Fold this protein.
Amino acid sequence: MMDKKTAAWIYNKMHEIRAFEETAWTLFTENKLRGSVHLYTGEEAVAAAVCAQLTDEDYIASTHRGHGHCIGKGAELDRALAELMGKATGYCKGRSGSMHIADFSKGNLGANAIVGGGIPIATGGALALKMQNKPNVAVAFFGDGASNQGTFHEAINLAAVWKLPIIYICENNQFGMTVPVWQSTSVENIADRSAGYGIAGEVVDGNDVVAVYEAFERAKERALKGEGPTLLECKTYRWRGHWTGDPEVYRTREEVEYWKENRDPIKLFGTYMTENGLATAEELDEIAQAVAKKMAEAVEFALNSPDPDPANVLEDVFYEG
């Protein structure tokens, strides 16, 4: 059973991710955050439950919907928000923005605007870990749409052949941009594709923290024992549109409200914690209030941070001159 410290960390991290994403939405609507962003609201259980079991020495590679993974892997809210807003105090000095934010010091190899682009990067990270005989794992986060890209199949095939210490985590949020998964994917469960590569595969409820935590724990153990990759599919749902300007004509408001009311991962985990003696309702409220305060401070930090100096435009850039 999950211990109190781990449960509290996960609950706090889920609140941080939720607060960050909803704040990004508000700033976008107020024209204070320029450029469209892809929000992770509703999927917090996956990033939090997985990253709770990783250290700075483990690698992750993320997606265009990558803020949750970044925060789960240790990013501070203030510097992460500053990056989204193009500020010099951001993790990448405001140059990467929402879809390429990274922090190598935490093992975060970066988000990626290319669908499926992070999968081979994480696989390369896993190869490096194996070649250096390090007792760590790599994690590739990706969506259901990316499972139909060539990078997905090529990377998993090599990882299976070489038995790399990597866990491929498909966050199946039901839609690849505007296309429902059943219209674009030939199998009922994306994890079923693991059989084609001779690796372990598992499907879990992606809004159930405990289910994700335990499934990842099993996958990590296999990887560290030299048994190779796992394809873990977490079935979840994004509350916001594919991007902040998405008209969302491909789904009903009733469907979205159902997931919000009945499948909110934060509420579900909070209930689990109180029912299993992992926290009191008062302790959960304290966590939520502390995160709200931290998020408000992050907004002030980002809004008051300087823009990058154009004189430094060529710094930290690979180029031939």
User: Anything to note?
Assistant: The chain has eleven helices and seven strands.
